[in-house]
């Protein structure tokens, strides 16, 4: 299974170093063999020696250049980072990234062989408009994305479940994941208010290959517990 922590705009560089040190020890103590990823804030990116895969929450589709406020692939190369989160709902809905910009970024990092965790998901009004409309909405988020890319991981994150404490029912997640797997057979993570107390239920659902955790991952013990839960379920 893939257990990923998106630290968003939290934890300083020093706090991230401490977090990674503690997480690495916890993973070792508990013999965790699952794929564990952490996406720190851009100023906390660093080389890391250990089990944890460090990914970037964002980067512009360039090596370097005149793109004020952005980082490019050369900044990731400095730390050996080869994993990127693309299409997160906060970038789509708060920062206004369009599908076209997302596809450009996807293609740039695909051409560099990055592992891409590609996020899709619907806002509440879309879900309330019915299943068919919701699936059409999510399908548009797949437009332009190379479904055959071998280093692709999809994360389904209903926007209304992110940071709200609300989660779809297990039946809803199972249904959605089944539909999304038909579209694209890549590993499929669920994200949106996953916490220690619901991680087991979510990870037990068919077609859930892992979780992408935001708020609840900020506590390193809790995030490690979720890795232990995944380990337990993987036998
Ligand atoms: O990338 C992670 C997701 O946005 C989930 O965030 P959350 O666990 O705080 O709901």
TrEMBL record:
Compartment list: Cytoplasm
Entry keyword set: Cytoplasm, Gluconeogenesis, Glycolysis, Isomerase
GO terms, molecular function: triose-phosphate isomerase activity
Domain of life from the UniProt record: Bacteria
Listed transmembrane segments: none
Catalytic activity: D-glyceraldehyde 3-phosphate = dihydroxyacetone phosphate
Gene Ontology annotations for the cellular component aspect, listed alphabetically: cytosol
GO biological-process terms attached to the record: gluconeogenesis; glyceraldehyde-3-phosphate biosynthetic process; glycerol catabolic process; glycolytic process
The protein's Enzyme Commission number: 5.3.1.1
Predominant location category: cytoplasm
Subunit comment: Homodimer.
Similarity remark: Belongs to the triosephosphate isomerase family.
Protein name: Triosephosphate isomerase
Organism, as annotated: Sulfurimonas hongkongensis
Native organism taxonomy: Bacteria, Pseudomonadati, Campylobacterota, Epsilonproteobacteria, Campylobacterales
